[in-house]
Structures are given as C-alpha cells and as structure tokens.
Amino acid sequence: MQAVYYLLSLAPITTVFLLLVIAKRSAKQAMPVAYLVTAAIALLIWQVPLNVIAASTLEGLVMAAEILYIVFGAIVLLNVLKESGAIATIRRGLLEVSPDRRIQVLIIAWMFGSFIEGASGFGTPAAVCGPLLVALGFPALAAVMVALIANSTAVVFAAVGIPVLLGINAGLEGSPVVENYMAQLGITYAQYFERIVIRAGILNSIIGTLIPLFMVACLTRYFGQSKSWREGLAIWQFALFAGLAFTIPSTLTAVFLGPEFPSLIGGLVGLAVVVLAAQKRFLTPKQVWDFPPTEAWSDGWMGNLKPVINNEVQGINLFKAWLPYVLVGLFLVVSRLPFLPFQALLKALEFNLTDVLGTEIGIDSQPLYLPGTIFILVVIVTYFFHRVEMKALKQATIDAVTTLTGTAVVLAAAVPMARVFINSGFNQSGLASMPLTLADGVSNLAGQSWPLFAPTIGAMGSFIAGSATVSNMMFSLFQFGVATEIDISTSVVVALQAMGGAAGNMICVTNVVAASATVGLSGCEGLLIRRVLLPLTYYVIGAGILGLIVVYGLKIT
Q: How confident is the model at residue 8 (pLDDT cuts 50, 70, 90)?
C-alpha cells in the first residue's frame, strides 16, 4: 500500500511534466488540470479537509499576485527604457565590447543575472535579463532559455543567503534529532551550519563553473543557422573563464564571509572581470557568432517584444542608459541589508492573516519589500532623468498589463497547486505531506547511493514549490534524516539538497511562466522546459556523483 502512496504523491509532478513536456500543451491548459489533480488527490487520498485546500488556494493566489507584481515592474521599466532610447544605447555599447552573441549572453545572463540574483532573488534575474536580451536583438525564446539556465548556480545563496539562512535553518534548527546529533559531534549548531555553507559553496562552484558552457552550447544548437553544438563549444575557453570569474569569488566569500553575499560579490567581481576580458579579446574566438537573419527565424521564436535596433536618442550616453539597471541593483542591495533602516521601512506595510479559514495556514505579504516596488521606483527616476513623455509612460504601463493577462491565469493555477501539494501534511489520514512521502519513496529505493539522488529531490521541490528556499524548508530535515540513517556526512547531503534546489529553478513552472511573460511569449513553457533539461540533468547528476565521491571517496564527515 505504501508504494501506492509513493506513486500518488508523484502524480502532481507527473501531470505537469506529461502535459507540458510530452503532450506539448500550453501552461494555460496544463496548470488548471494539474491543480485539479493535486486537489483531488489531497482531498480523496490524503483526506485533506476542504477548508485547508481552500486556504492553500488563497495562499497561492496571493503569492501569484506577488510574482505578477514583480514581472509587471520589470516590463514597465524595459518599455520605458526602449522609449527613452536607452536600450539602443546599451545595445551599441555591448556591440563595442563584443559583437559575438555568445559573449553577450555570458555578460548579461550569466554575470549580470548572477549579480541581480545576489541582490534580490525572487526570480528577478530572468525578469531583468530576458527582456533586456530581446531588446538587444535576441529571439525571445532564446533569451528566456539562457536566462533560465543562468538562474541556477547563484541561487544556492541568492539574496542575503536566504535559501540557506531561511530555508535550511527553518528545516533543521531546533529539531531534537539535529540537536542530539550536534551533541554527539561536540559542536554547536552554528558551527554545523557553517560546515553546510562551506560544503555548498565549494561543491556548487565545481558543478556551476560549466553552466556558462551549457548556455552557449544550447544557444547555438537551438538558435544558430547550422543548429550546431560545436559553435557553442568553440568558445569553451572564454565560457570556462566566465564560469570561474563567478565561482571563485563566490566560493571564497562563502568560505570566509558566510552565506549572505557569495552571489552578489561573485556576480559583481565576475562582471567586471569578464567585460574587461571581452574588451581585450582575451580567450575570445576569432570567428564572431550571430543569429541567422530575422526573416529566417522560426515561428515561435519571438513574442510581443521586438528588438530595438536604431532608436538612439542624443544625450542618452552609456552612463545614462545603464544607470536605471545600476539603480535596480543598488536599491535591491540597500533595501535588503539588515543593518540599514530601509529594510524595516519597506517591511512596515504588512498584510498578515493567521488561521485562514480556520486552518493553521497563514498568509503574509510585504508588498513594498517585493522587487516590483524597486522596479517602479526606478521607473519614476528614469521618467525624470531620461525626460520620458507622459504619453510614453502610460503606453509602457498599458503594454505591461496587456502582456500579463494570460500569465495571470497560469499563475493563478500553478502557485495554488504548489501550495496544496506542500500543505497536504494538514490531513486526517495520518500520512506525511505529499513532498515528504515522495522523498521517502525515493530514499527507500536509493539506499547507500542516496547522495546521487539527494540533488534530484531538491530540484523536484523547486519545480513544484517555485522556490529553492521552500524546497530547502521542505526537505532539509528529511535529507538530514536519510544521511543519519545510512551513516554518511549529513552536512554534505544537506549541501546537495541546496544545490538541487538551485538547479530546479531552471524548470520551475512559475519561473518559466513569469520569464516568458516578460518577453511576451505564451504557450511555449513545455518547449522551454525540454530545452533546459540537458543542463538540469548535468547539474543534478553531476552534483550527485560529486556527492558520492566526497562521501565515500574522500570520506568527508
């Protein structure tokens, strides 16, 4: 009977995968079905009360609205920058750094995206980098694909270390099992947590260094004239250099300073190093790679956003053009540093509902603290600084609302589905929640080879929950328990969980839908997931193999 529960707990994930990836249905069609399947299993098999399902749905709708707010702000900012001529100036500046699209994608999606992830999290990098790449002349489908692949390595620590400080700590700290383990080791929880951070930083950097190469290889394979992996691999030296430019400072920060700023410092240092190297033609190939002519692009490559080619405005120099994005990064960092007053001010406006519909579920939202507020603030600054006409600002806002209409429907089903799945632990059947039941089934099959599967569990958590932080909350204690049971390093296994949670961002449905919305794409979610499966598979299997080596080969405790 237990095997049946394992299979049923897998059904929500299977439904999404089958409809989006295999049947090639749009997210508009797939996600409402997945929600109904999840709710039915929760109600009939897990015996989750109706009021818990309703409360989980309301919780999901609030979270969906927060995602839409972030994406809305990102699109409005982009539209305003197009109107002011800033995007055309940025495009010219990037062409002067390098006309090679592979190098441009490493600068924007990998380096700048990692910096934005370190500054904000919340899926903001894809919302910023995707539309920026489109405006620079990338096909919308290509822009979203590389933005999703890039938004992985930096997610392990993300903004101010939230995935580990909040996610892992919420799962482990204070647990009697963990405290007993600490007592046996003769160390404090703070010392143990430091071990997890260091292992996550080092192991993640080993795997993440190759992600830029996967990005450019996928770019040339799916969007090049000759559909060739080789054209992407031809830039392997510069791609590896770009990978190391992020992972080395990121790792050193994690080891010596802790989890708060590895992604931010790695992105900032790496961005400066990679741009300088590209300008000096260091390790760059002689042959420049570009997309085929626009008229040869396949159907479905482009969304509603169009490239901006010749729209430069006199007086909008590179400094003025880039300043809004610099301000986005600066304001995000300043608003998230706990020793400054801005975080408390932005969090002061809070909507907090407890015991929703008589359940233990709470709904909490801090709208001013969301990145969408930062985007809108920068839009206001840009309006005056770039002297944008009011008519253009109104049109930019209208276009953003229009773009998000279909996305709202998808997110209104996808996020509530995730919350019902996660909250299925509030039941009358005595079963563990669906995520924990699923993880337990995998662990029973894996046995001593568990390190190989640990990252996959983390990725599945992010796929459903839409967040590496939530994945870590759900599974950190479970991963710890499995490692204890088979007597291997718990700190390494929990670090593998964090890596898997970060990798799962590539295929997280809410991220895919939100990123697609920023470039005006819809109905291509399954195609995008299929195209990022290769780097995702590399990440989780590579992390798993590395985990086996560290645990059984190096015998790290």
A: very high
Taking 60 as the threshold, does the pLDDT of residue 199 lie above it? Answer: yes
The helix or strand, by DSSP H or E, that contains position 364, with its residue range, turns out to be: strand 363-365
Q: How does pLDDT run across 452-492, given as a tens digit for each residue?
A: 999 999 998 898 887 888 889 888 988 998 998 888 999 99
180, burial (CB in 10 Å: exposed 0-12, middle 13-18, buried 19+): exposed
CA 435 from centroid of its chain's CA atoms:
20
Amino acid occupying residue 509:
V
> Which residues are CB-neighbours of 394 under 8 A, at least 6 positions away?
none
Q: How confident is the model at residue 308 (pLDDT cuts 50, 70, 90)?
A: low
| φ, ψ at 308 (rounded to 5°) | -110, 115
- Angle (CA) 473-476-477 rounded to 5° is 105
What gap in Å lies between CA 375 and CA 94, rounded to an integer? 23
pLDDT value at 94 more than 70? yes
Tokens standing for residue 266: 């790695």
Please report, for residues 250, 400, 401, 452, the alpha-carbon distance to residue 79 in angstroms, rounded to integers and kept in the order given.
33, 8, 12, 45
> In terms of Cα–Cα distance, which of 554, 528, 464 is closest to 501?
464
Three-state secondary-structure class, residue 213: helix
CA dist., res. 335 & res. 346, Å (int) = 8
Total residues belonging to the chain: 557
270, two tokens: 């790496």
Query: CA-to-CA distance for 145 and 224, rounded, in angstroms?
Result: 14
Tokens of 365: 């939202």
290 pLDDT tier (thresholds 50, 70, 90): very high
* DSSP bridge partners of 364: 352
